[in-house]
Fold this protein.
Amino acid sequence: MNIFRLAGDMTHLASVLVLLLKIHTIKSCAGVSLKTQELYALVFATRYLDIVTDFISVYNTVMKLIFLGSSFSIVWYIRHHRVVRRSYDKDQDTFRHYLLMIPCMLLALFVHEKFTFKEVMWTFSLYLEAVAILPQLVLLQRTRNIDNLTGQYVFLLGAYRGLYIFNWIYRYFTEPHFVHWITWIAGVVQTLLYADFFYYYFESWKNNVRLQLPA
Amino acid sequence: EEEYDVKDEL
């Protein structure tokens, strides 16, 4: 494992912890898109089907369990927790899941490396992860005041994706490899979706003002 | 079975 991959995984872990911290201690999910969280739960459920069939490493298995557990518990908190669910911006979080899920499933059925159930599900998870942040970005744009934790959550997620690109570049030059167009293109598209957010995030940080995305 | 390196990623 190289330093970019480890930093990427740790940033991903940090993003989940920031979100759980906000939900668990402040008991608020204001500004958090349930749609995005449900899509991530689906991403992990379809990608980690190999958790029961292939053993890669203890690290790999533990991280998979953390991402599965955290994504489903975040969804549970927002939907069912007595206090947390009241802070959910239901009227603002209107992005329709199926507009992302159906095209991703169709694309996975036609563009994949192997036509097996596990492989198509894995490819679907890559496509879906690439666009799963969209409901969250739309919600941020509609929210006039983005709180620090929500801003940091999205920033850490974007940083994780960017670090994975460096990891692929590093692996390309240092390891025997196959060409993984699907993984790479989906990863680059996903990172590009954060470009606009990053711009405003750094502007607000530089000028020391509250983060606000233009409508 | 071919080696499939990105599968060890998360």
Notes: The mean pLDDT of chain A is 94. Residues 148-174 of chain A form the longest helix (27 residues). Chain A is about 70% helix and 0% strand. The interface with chain B takes residues 5, 9, 12, 50, 54, 56-57, 60, 63-64, 67, 122, 164, 167, 171, 175-178, 180, 183 of chain A (CB under 8 Å).
